């Protein structure tokens, strides 16, 4: 289990889902329901180098043309465009796998969420093979959320948004929850708040790309990746002002 800490954040700096759209839906719950230990700020430091922007340019492009919304049946349903070379697709809600769609030439590629929640982030990626190998996974799409008319609309945290977080570190050597191999420049977030694909600048660390989640990554927490060794321990738990750089 990773060493994490609960953080206080002023949500005034975030763009939130319209109240009209969220009123009819329950609040999105964190996927982990167990106890999360509170960890005091310990201070710490980076390893003396700056993490470069994480490169996803060699991957299949993200599906586009996402269109849909909340229907009278209480489901959020949406369609999206094919990606050339894709064999399958995966859809997510708040970083949790929602649906797998194999591409066999069907007229419509469609996703349905039978249990939507207020302000949920819907995202999709394409795969070059019908497996979850890191090499086959494409770029994650922009987040889509219900607008005031209950239609899905693209959502991005505005560039320059600042977040006052406590930041801890991890060094798991495995695939991230999104599916990319963990590595320098990857960070884990609460995907109910920060959509996957968001790029952040972390003082003392460098650039990080939101592509992971974790049982203790809840509410206002970010976990930055270090290679195995003492670097993660040296980082400690720090309160920092993070800046959104884009997607």
Automatic annotation (TrEMBL):
Q: Name one GO biological process term.
A: peptidoglycan turnover
Keyword Signal (UniProt) = yes
Q: Where is the 3D domain?
A: 188-242
Any Pfam family: 3D
Keyword list, A-Z: Signal
As given in the record, the signal peptide range reads 1-23
MF terms from GO for this chain are: hydrolase activity, hydrolyzing O-glycosyl compounds
- Gene Ontology CC: outer membrane
The keyword Signal is annotated on this UniProt entry: yes
What protein name applies here? 3D (Asp-Asp-Asp) domain-containing protein
Species source reads: Kribbella rubisoli
């Amino acid at each position: 289990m990773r060493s994490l800490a609960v953080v206080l954040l002023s949500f005034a700096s975030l763009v939130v889902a319209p109240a009209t759209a969220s009123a009819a839906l329950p609040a999105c719950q964190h996927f982990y329901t167990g106890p999360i230990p509170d960890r005091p700020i310990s201070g710490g430091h980076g390893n003396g180098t700056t993490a470069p922007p994480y490169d996803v340019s060699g991957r299949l492009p993200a599906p586009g043309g996402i269109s849909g919304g909340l229907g009278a049946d209480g489901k959020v349903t949406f369609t999206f465009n094919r990606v050339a070379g894709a064999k399958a697709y995966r859809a997510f809600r708040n970083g949790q796998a929602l649906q797998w769609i194999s591409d066999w030439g069907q007229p419509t590629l469609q996703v349905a969420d039978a249990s939507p929640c207020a302000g949920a982030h819907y995202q999709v990626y394409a795969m070059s093979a019908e497996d979850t190998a890191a090499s086959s996974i494409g770029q994650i799409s922009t987040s889509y959320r219900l607008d005031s008319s209950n239609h899905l609309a693209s959502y991005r945290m505005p560039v320059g948004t600042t977040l006052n977080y406590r930041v801890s570190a991890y060094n798991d050597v495995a695939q991230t929850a999104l599916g990319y191999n963990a590595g320098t420049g990857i960070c884990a977030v609460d995907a109910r708040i920060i959509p996957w694909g968001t790029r952040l600048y972390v003082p003392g660390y460098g650039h990080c790309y939101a592509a992971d989640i974790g049982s203790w990554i809840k509410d206002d927490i970010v976990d930055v990746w270090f290679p195995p060794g003492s670097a993660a321990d040296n980082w400690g738990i720090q309160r920092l002002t993070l800046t959104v750089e884009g997607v």
